[in-house]
TrEMBL record:
One example GO MF annotation: chromatin binding
Matching Pfam families: Myb_DNA-bind_6
Limits of the HTH myb-type domain: 124-161
Gene3D superfamilies found in the cross-reference section: Homeodomain-like (1.10.10.60)
Identification of the protein by name: TTF1 factor
Taxonomic source organism: Dasyornis broadbenti (rufous bristle-bird)
Domain Myb-like, residue spans: 124-172, 173-255
A biological process from GO: termination of RNA polymerase I transcription
Highest classification ranks of the organism: Eukaryota, Metazoa, Chordata, Craniata, Vertebrata
A single Gene Ontology CC term: nucleolus
PROSITE patterns per UniProt: HTH_MYB, MYB_LIKE
Length: 349
C-alpha cells in the first residue's frame, strides 16, 4: 500500500493522521489498519487517552500468554530486551516467529505503539519503587552533574524510570516555596504558560498566532488546548520559585476560576442539585472506568465548566461519601453513590 492510500484509510480511525510522520504511518498501516477494520466490523471504535483497568488486564494477559508461548522467562526481558544483551538475538527471533505485534495487541482497539508503551510501563520493575531515599537524591544530583539531562542514562544508573528521575531532579533543584502564591508568582506562571502555548500554536498553525496576539483577554485559546499537557519543567524554570507540580496545580486552579467566571455552583441548593445530576448521569452512562467518561460532555450536566472542575467535584464526592473507595472499582463507586448517597441528597434538596 502506498503512503497516500495508507494515510487516507487510517484517517477514518485516526482523524489527526495527517500530522503523523511518514515512517509512523507506514508502521501503522502494517500493524494497525487490519485490526482497526476488524474492530469496525464489530462496532468497536478505536480509542485513545487513558487505559481502562479492563485494557490493562488484557495487556497483562497478552504478555503472559506470549511468555508461555515462547519460553521467554520474564516480561522485563520481553519488553526491555536491551537490558539483556546476551539474550537479545534469541528474543528478537522469537518475537518475529510468534508475531509479537499481533499477540500483544489482541482485543485492544488502540494503536499498537500505545499498547506497547503501556505494556512497558506496567511491567517495568523500575517504575514503582516508592519515595527516594536521601542517598538516592544525592546520587541523582551527582549523576545529573556528570551526564546533564541525559535521563535515559541516569535512569539506568539509578534503576528508576526516565520520567521518575527527571521529575525528581526538577523537584530537588527548585527553591521550593510551600507558602501561598504571591501575585508576582502567579503572574510569572501565567506569562510562562502563555509563552509556551504561543510557541505550540505557532508550530501547529501560524495563522493562529495572530489571533492570540490580538486578543486582549487572558482566555486567548480554546478550553481543550488550555488543559492539554504542557512542558511543566520548562514552566517551572520560568516561574523560578516553585517546582513543576505546584505550577501545574496552580495553573489548573487559576484556569478553573477564570472559566467558571466566579460562579458559585456548589453552594446551597445549587450544590445539592449539581451532585444529584452528576451521580445520575454517571450511573446512566454505565462506564467501567473513569477514562471511559466523556468529562467535557458531563460538564454540561452541572454547568458550563471545564472538565477538570467536574472531575475535582467527583473526586471530593467519592472521598467524602464512599467508604473504602480506594479498593472499589469505578463502577462500584458509582453504584454506591447512586444507591446510597443519591436518596440522601434528594431528601436534603
Amino acid at each position: 500500500m502506498d503512503l497516500d492510500t495508507a494515510r487516507q484509510e487510517l484517517e477514518e480511525f485516526i482523524p489527526h493522521v495527517r500530522n503523523i510522520s511518514d515512517s509512523s504511518v507506514k508502521k501503522m498501516a502494517g500493524r494497525d489498519l487490519a485490526r482497526f477494520k476488524e474492530f469496525k466490523k464489530q462496532g468497536i471504535a478505536v480509542k485513545f487517552g487513558r487505559f481502562t483497568q479492563k485494557e490493562n488486564n488484557q495487556i497483562q494477559k497478552n504478555v503472559e500468554e506470549f511468555l508461555s508461548l515462547t519460553g521467554i522467562d520474564s516480561a522485563e526481558k520481553l519488553l526491555f530486551t536491551s537490558r539483556y544483551p546476551e539474550d537479545k538475538d534469541t528474543i528478537h527471533r522469537l518475537k518475529i516467529e510468534h508475531h509479537f505485534c499481533e499477540k500483544i495487541s489482541e482485543g485492544i482497539p488502540r494503536p499498537w505503539r500505545l499498547i506497547y508503551y503501556r505494556a512497558r510501563k506496567i511491567f517495568d520493575p523500575n517504575n514503582y519503587k516508592g519515595r527516594y531515599t536521601k542517598e538516592e537524591k544525592e546520587k541523582l544530583k551527582k549523576y545529573q552533574a556528570l551526564h546533564g539531562n541525559d535521563w535515559k542514562k541516569i535512569s539506568e544508573l539509578m534503576s528508576r524510570s526516565n520520567l521518575s528521575v527527571a521529575m525528581k531532579f526538577s523537584e530537588i533543584k527548585s527553591a521550593i516555596n510551600y507558602g501561598p502564591w504571591t501575585k508576582e508568582e502567579t503572574q510569572r506562571l501565567m506569562n510562562a504558560v502563555k509563552e509556551v502555548m504561543r510557541r505550540k500554536l505557532k508550530a501547529e498553525n501560524t495563522s493562529s498566532l495572530s489571533s492570540v496576539e490580538q486578543s486582549s483577554t487572558d482566555l486567548w485559546i480554546d478550553r481543550e488546548k488550555l488543559y492539554q499537557q504542557l512542558p511543566w519543567t520548562e514552566i517551572e524554570t520560568k516561574v523560578g520559585s516553585r517546582y513543576w507540580r505546584q505550577c501545574k496545580q496552580k495553573w489548573n486552579s487559576v484556569l478553573t476560576s477564570k472559566m467558571t467566571k466566579g460562579q458559585q455552583l456548589y453552594r446551597g441548593t445549587n450544590a445539592l442539585q449539581a451532585k444529584i445530576n452528576l451521580i445520575k448521569r454517571l450511573y446512566e452512562i454505565k462506564a467501567e472506568d473513569a477514562s471511559e467518561v466523556n468529562w467535557d460532555e458531563l460538564s454540561n450536566t452541572i454547568g458550563d465548566v471545564p472538565r477538570a472542575y467536574v472531575q475535582a467535584k467527583f473526586y471530593r464526592l467519592k472521598v467524602t461519601s464512599v467508604p473504602l473507595w480506594q479498593i472499589k472499582t469505578f463502577s462500584e463507586i458509582i453504584e454506591y453513590l447512586y444507591e446510597k448517597k443519591l436518596p440522601e441528597l434528594e431528601e436534603q434538596l
